[in-house]
Amino acid sequence: MGLRTESATNMRNFVTTRLSKFRLQILAGVAVLFVVYLLTPYDSDVRSALRFQKTIVANYIQHKYPSDKWLLGAQKYPIDSLRDVGVVIKTGYGTRRRVPQMLNAYYKEEFAGDMVIVQDYPVADNEKNYTLPDGKKVPALDIIGWMLEKKLLAGKENLERISKYKHLAEAIEGEEWFLSEELSKEIGWELDAMKFISGLQYAWQTMPKKKWYLMVDDDTYVLKESMSLLLGHLNYAKPQYLGNPVGDFKGRFAHGGSSAIISGAAMKKLFEDYPQVAAAAHLESPTAIYGDKLLSTTLMKLGIYLDEAYSRLFNGENPHATRIWGDRFCVPLVSFHALGSGNAMEQTGDTFKALKEPVFWRQLAKIYGAAEWDTYLKEPIRVNMNYVGRLDEHSTTIKNVNTVEDCLHNCQSRGGECLAWTWSQSVKECYVAPWAVIGEFQEGVFSGVNGPVATKLASHCHSPPAPAKIPIATA
C-alpha cells in the first residue's frame, strides 16, 4: 500500500513538474480553440478552414499512396439502383433535345427506375411525360413555375431573374420560337441555379424514403454498377453528400455536371427536420450564381459537408477527354459529363450498356479499344497520337526539346509524376502530365504513356468481392 501511494505521488510530481507554465498556456489555448470551434456555426469560416486543411492532407496521402483497400470489404449497405435511388434530371429550354437521348441511354443501362425531369420553362400538355421504350412514363415539371405556385419565392416575385423566367415562359407560350431560343441562351445558366434545392425537394415529396438521391445534368451519364459499388459501402441512414469537389474552402461543392449524390437521411434532415433552412435556400436561389454551390452551403448549415474521400470516383469530362490519374487507377469510375453534342450520349450509352460490373478508371482505354498499358513497355512511342490531351496548370511544357527520345526520357525521369507525354515535332516542345487520356489522333506529334509507371499502378489494384445479397423489401 505504501509503495502505491509513493508511486502515485511521484507520478503527480512528475506531471506537475513537466507541465510548466508555458505548457499550461498552450494547453489552455488549445482548449479555448476547441470550445470556440464547437460553438461556431456549422458553416463558419473556422470550421471550413480546418476541414479544408484536413482535406489537403488526405488528398496528398491518397495521391502519393493510392489505395483501394476500402473496396475489399463486404458491402454493408448493398442497394438496388432501380428501387433505392431517386434520379433528378435537370434540363432547360435550350438543352431540352438532349433529354430523350439521355433517357434512352439510361434505359439501355437498366438504370431507369424512379426519375423526374425538372426544367425551367412551362410544360405543354403533350410534354408532361417522356416515354421510355418499355412504355414507362417519366414526368417533367416546370420547377420554377412550381416554386411560384407553392409560394416558395414569396416576396421575390419581382426580382430580375424571376422576370426573365416569366419573359421566357411568355415567349414559349406565344410560340415565338426564335425569341425563346435566344432568351434561353442568355439566361439558361441563371435559371439553372434555381433548380437544385427545388428539384430535390420535389423529388423528396414525390419519391420519398429512397436510400439515395442522384442529381444529374442532361448531358451526364452515370455508370450504374460503379455507383452501386460505391454506395454499397456507405450508410444511407447517415446524412451524406458526395461528388466531384470544386470551390474554395468557404464553400466546397459537388460539381453539378459530374453528378451529386445525397443520402435519404440528408434529404430528410433538410426538408423535414429543418424546413426553414430549405425555405431560406429557395429565397436565395433567384440571386445565387451557382446552384450546386447553393446546395452545398445549404447543407453546411446543417453540418452536412461534401465528403471528399470519394471525390476521385466522379468525373466531369466525356470519355475521350477523361484524365486517368495514377491515384484513380484502382477505384470505380462513376460518371461522364459534357455529352450534349451530337450523339455523344447515345454512343456512350451503347458502349457501356452491356457491362454488368463496375468500371474502373484503369479499364477505360481497353473499353474504347486503345492499347493496353503493358504495350508501352515494348513500344513506348506512338506516331500522330496524343495521350496528354488538354494542357493546364498541372501539366508541364518543356521547350527546345529536339528529339522524341528526349521527351520520352524527360517523362520517365519524373517517375509517378508523369503518366503521359507528347512531343510536337514542329515547335520542338515536350508536354508531360500526371494523367493520361485514352488517346486522340493529332497529326505531327509523337506521344505515349509511361509504361513502367502505368503497369506498376495497375498491378497494385484488386478486384472487389461480389456484392452481398440485397435484402428483399417487405410490405
Mind sketching the topology for me?
Elements: H1 2-18, H2 21-39, H3 45-64, H4 81-84, E1 85-90, H5 98-108, E2 115-119, E3 129-131, E4 137-142, H6 143-149, H7 160-173, H8 177-192, H9 196-206, E5 212-217, E6 221-222, H10 224-231, E7 241-243, E8 245-246, E9 253-254, E10 260-263, H11 264-273, H12 275-284, H13 291-300, E11 306-307, E12 324-325, E13 335-336, H14 344-352, H15 364-367, H16 375-378, E14 382-386, E15 396-398, H17 404-413, E16 420-424, E17 429-433, E18 435-436, E19 440-449, H18 451-459
Parallel strand pairs: 1-2, 1-5, 2-4, 7-11
Antiparallel strand pairs: 3-4, 5-10, 6-13, 7-10, 8-9, 12-18, 14-19, 15-17, 16-17, 16-19
Organism: Apiospora kogelbergensis
Pathway: Protein modification; protein glycosylation
Keywords: Glycosyltransferase, Membrane, Nucleotide-binding, Signal-anchor, Transferase, Transmembrane, Transmembrane helix
